[in-house]
Task: inverse folding
């Protein structure tokens, strides 16, 4: 059975507003998915401070801020009050759960996570990750089984906390297929289900949406391992035809479209390879991200 897991990032109020339409597209294609929620406050205004900005954060897209966000969204937390994503997410909790979609976790603050995690000590990292998991439990009624870092930004302590907190899986890296991570020589007993295909937002910077779809489908057709594709709900929702074309194309290629929880169930984790986690560049992204490295040992 060919499996392709769909990961959907819901990080902003615009992303939350796009959820019902995305869910309907998925249902119409009999596709499962995992929705990864950030439940903090949307403070885009901090990106406009001198010397800062989303474009300077490692792992962020090269798409200009004005193309990604409306002016009213860019001043949240500066000239406009912040938006609380927790209450917005609760609106769709029951509907998505009843439809069989999985809820998983993103950190509370994109800005602080991507910009600062490389400098955090063990205690700061633990506190931030605990706060995010606590918010998820309060929102959805159960602890998250899956985790996904903003921008592929992790530190050694964050990988350790995944194991301490009992996560079933994590999707913090880019790679070619599921694996057990080795972080700075340390085994982490939480399997990584890495994103294996380029995102739409990384491709439309240099080609049309139609060509981006063809490129992604070409890669998935050649793949020999289970695949994971990442939708960014706020950005990708402006390309509904591309999303539908991808879903249709994958079904025609013989893939079963599932959430990451279902992908994990189909894996024999005892036979997963061990790989080093390394830092490297991803086309269409700023700076370095966590990547699946060489086979261990």
Result:
């Amino acid at each position: 059975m060919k499996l392709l897991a769909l990961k959907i990032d819901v990080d902003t109020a615009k992303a939350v507003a796009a959820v019902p339409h995305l869910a309907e597209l998925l249902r119409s294609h009999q596709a499962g998915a995992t929705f990864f929620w950030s439940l903090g406050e949307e403070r885009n205004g901090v990106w406009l401070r001198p010397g800062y900005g989303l474009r300077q954060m490692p792992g962020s897209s090269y798409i200009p801020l004005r193309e990604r966000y409306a002016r009213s969204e860019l001043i949240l937390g500066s000239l406009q009050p912040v938006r609380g994503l927790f209450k917005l997410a609760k609106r769709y909790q029951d509907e998505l759960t009843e439809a069989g979609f999985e809820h998983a976790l993103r950190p509370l603050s994109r800005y602080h996570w991507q910009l600062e995690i490389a400098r955090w000590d063990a205690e700061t990292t633990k506190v931030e990750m605990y706060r995010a998991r606590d918010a998820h439990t309060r929102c959805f009624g159960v602890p998250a089984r899956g985790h996904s870092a903003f921008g592929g930004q992790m530190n050694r302590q964050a990988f350790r906390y995944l194991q301490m907190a009992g996560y079933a899986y994590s999707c913090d890296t880019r790679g070619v297929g599921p694996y057990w991570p080795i972080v700075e020589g340390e085994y982490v007993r939480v399997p990584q289900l890495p994103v294996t295909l380029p995102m739409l937002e990384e491709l439309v910077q240099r080609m049309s949406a139609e060509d981006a779809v063809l490129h992604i489908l070409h890669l998935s057709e050649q793949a020999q391992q289970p695949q994971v594709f990442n939708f960014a709900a706020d950005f990708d929702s402006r390309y509904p035809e591309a999303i539908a074309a991808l879903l249709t194309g994958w079904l025609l290629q013989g893939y079963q479209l599932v959430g990451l929880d279902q992908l994990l169930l189909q894996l024999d984790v005892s036979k997963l390879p061990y790989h080093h986690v390394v830092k490297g560049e991803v086309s269409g992204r700023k700076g370095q991200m966590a990547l699946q490295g060489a086979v261990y040992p």
